[in-house]
Amino acid sequence: MKFLLNRIAVGIAAALPCIAAQAAPATYSPVTDARLSNPEPANWLQYRGNYAGWGYSALDKVTSKNVDKLTLAWAFATGQTDGHQSPPVVNNGYMYVTTPGSQVIALDAKTGAELWRYKKDVSAEMLQLHPTNRGVALYGDKVYVATVDCFLVALDAKTGKVAWIKPVGDWKALQYMTLAPLAAKGKIMVGSSGGETGVRGFVAAYDAETGAEAWRTYTTAAPGDVGGDSWPGDTHKNGGGSIWITGTYDPAANLAYWGTGNPAPWPTEERKGDNLYTTSTIALDVDTGKIKGHHQYTPNDAWDWDEVSAPLLIDTEIKGRKVKAAVHAGRNGYLWMLERKDGPIGFIDAVSYVNNNVFASVDKVTGRPTYNLDKRPGVGKGNVTFCPSLWGGKDWVPEAWNPKTGLFYIPANNNLCSELPEPEALKYKKGDLYIGYPIDKVLGGLKYQDGKAPATIGELQAWDLKTGKLAWVHKFPTFNWGPLLTTGGNLVFAGGTNDRMFRAFDATNGKVLWETATPSGVTGVPSSFEIDGEQYVAVQSGWGVDAQRMQAGIDTLSGKVTGVPQGGSVMVYKLSK
Questions:
Q1: How far apart are CA 520 and CA 568, in angstroms?
Q2: Rounded CA gap, 346 and 338, in Å?
Q3: Pick from 257, 312, 258, 245: nearest CA to 50
Q4: Could you read off the pLDDT of 362-409 as tens digits, one per residue?
Q5: What are phi and psi of 558, to 5 degrees?
Q6: Sequence spans of domains, the chain
Q7: Most buried of 21, 204, 502, 562, CB within 10 angstroms?
Q8: 304 catalytic per annotation
Q9: For 466-494, what is the mean pLDDT?
Q10: Phi and psi at residue 429, in whole multiples of 5°?
């Protein structure tokens, strides 16, 4: 769900960084391909810590035995409200966070002192559907950020000075970017959001030094392309397939894996066919941008089941054989175990991790689902209820993998369904929403699975990939919107609940070992790093955007009003002495 009809009256041009009078940490260490391919545990150099997307820190000084001694080291107020979702990215004492309001803030990772701040001003005319940002990329001596008005900006990592700025898309067509860029082989890769506005999704790569565009690959296949016959007429031109979340990367194969969003508009009557490559994982050659392989999770999607999270790249054993796996907890409520094959993506297995009443079956060879047609919304159907809800079994929030425990962790939501009414007649108009249903019916269309309020909705699940079985689950009375961090100290860290708590769980059995209240709700991506022999755990607190919209939907359903304090903060913890 991607709607926020708020306009923010700010300037037009890119702002200069605001330099704080603070001493910087030690000499900045350039971030190379070698470091990104084999990151040192003391730093957190990219969105999920490594190219494979694990969300794993090998640091083990904070453990399941001493985590109860974790205490606040420092906190920093960002001066912004709404959803703070980016991880604190750390390179040898320099920390970088992004916030709503188009800011990049550089901090001393040990003390929290502000080093510099960059703010990208955007047009007062811009309709911001998702006023958030999910982080930076580090490469060489620069920091790269993708902005809400669809620019890619390169900043000097030590000073915040703008090195270059390049337009990526057309904000007047409601293209925008929320993801952290992906850096590899001299290229900075980004993608456009805006699937609910009838834009055409793409991944684009830019030269890290000059900002020159290297290639652009669209995620809706055109006539003459492989998959082009899966779109009737020219419907691919406004077909969605947005890129919301950073891709993962296999350096050995030189392939980047990206998750793609839903097709547009939501009703399927005018876009019969599979609608490749929406609701898919695609594998792109980083040198050329060519699509080398794909797996589509929900062909001809009618349920807004974006699959925007890139799969985690895990070499493991599944079904009794060792495989180079690509594992993804789908918004459609299935855990997908796929195989990387130097381009093509093979299917291994899929198991439901929350209730799904739409899939009648999943083909054991191809992974293609068949549908219960009475659960497909559309023209002449009236009101149709389906499970999981359009928020999915898991939305964009990232999973995690711990190589020590051998468990795959999922921030899930169960026992929720959605109801969609008869579609509206609509026609694409640049700059307008292109959904096909009234917004109030979409946002207020949540239903309880069994018609009554369940005891629990949110879950933190741990899965054994070798067996395809659930190892443990921790259940919450509220829903769960918490990105995950797992560590070498046998821990899983997560927020995501409306009680403002940030928690540590035993990674082996799911027991809550530590929790602390933060100023707002936590939907930020946690990270961990080490300075002077001390391990730190960091996360941003700041409730808003989709978590707030989902809360509003549940409040409508329950007849209650749930207030979560607003305001953004960087929260950093370490063991007390």
A1: 7
A2: 6
A3: 312
A4: 999 999 999 999 999 999 999 999 999 999 999 999 999 999 999 999
A5: -90, -15
A6: 6-69+85-575
A7: 502
A8: yes
A9: 97
A10: -140, 125
Q: How many helical (H) and strand (E) elements, i.e. helices and strands, does the chain have? A: 3, 41
* CA 548/CA 545 separation, integer angstroms: 5
Assess contact for 258 and 193: CB atoms under 8 A.
no
Query: Would the pLDDT of 2 be above 60?
Result: no
How far, rounded to the nearest angstrom, does the alpha carbon of residue 372 sit from its chain's CA centroid?
Answer: 29
> By mean pLDDT, which of 18-27, 216-225, 503-512, 549-558 is the weakest?
18-27
**Strand-by-strand arrangement of the 458-464 sheet:** 400-402, 407-413, 458-464, 469-475
- Closest Cα partner for 180 from 132, 129, 122? 132
Distance of alpha carbon 394 from the chain centroid? 10
Q: What is the pLDDT of residue 22?
A: 64
Query: Residue 323 to residues 62, 317, 419: CA-CA distances in angstroms?
Result: 31, 6, 39
- Residue 103 neighbours by CB distance under 10 Å: 20
DSSP conformational letter for 210: T
CA distance linking residue 403 with residue 360, whole number of Å: 34
CB 92 within 8 A of CB 26: yes
Q: How far apart are the first and last CA of the chain?
A: 44
Classify domain 6-69+85-575 by CATH architecture: 8 Propeller (2.140)
Question: Which of 250, 274, 304, 395 is the catalytic position?
Answer: 304
Tokens of residue 314, six digits? 């895990």
pTM for this prediction: 0.96
Share of the chain above pLDDT 90, in %: 91
pLDDT tens for each residue of 291-324 = 999 999 999 999 999 999 999 999 999 999 999 9
Cα→Cα distances 512→248, 266, 474, 502, Å? 30, 40, 9, 11
Question: If we measure between CA atoms, which residue out of 564, 560, 554, 519 comes closest to residue 540?
Answer: 519
Locate all alpha helices (DSSP H) within 406-473, ordered by sequence.
Answer: 439-443
Q: Identify whether the C-beta of residue 314 lies closer than 8 Å to the C-beta of residue 52.
A: yes
- Span of 116-120, 170-174, 310-314, 400-404 with lowest mean pLDDT: 170-174
Residue 262 CA to residue 526 CA, distance in Å, equals 27
Q: How many CB atoms lie within 10 A of CB 6?
A: 9
Question: How many Cβ atoms are within 10 Å of 440's Cβ, its own excluded?
Answer: 9
What is the torsional sign of CA 229, 174, 83, 53?
positive
Judged against a pLDDT cut of 90, whether residue 12 lies above it is answered with: no
Contact between 341 and 322 under an 8 Å Cβ cutoff? The reply is: no
The H-or-E segment that residue 167 falls in is strand 162-167
Cα–Cα distance for residue pair 175/190, rounded to 1 Å: 12
- pLDDT of 127: 86
Q: Six-digit token pair at 68? A: 């109860």
Question: Three-state SS string across 462-493, please?
Answer: EEECCCCEEEEEEECCCCCCCCEEEECCCEEE
Beta pairing, strands 484-487 & 56-57: parallel
What's 14's DSSP letter? B
Pairwise CA distance, residues 543 & 65, whole Å:
30
Q: What is the mean pLDDT of residues 542-568?
A: 95
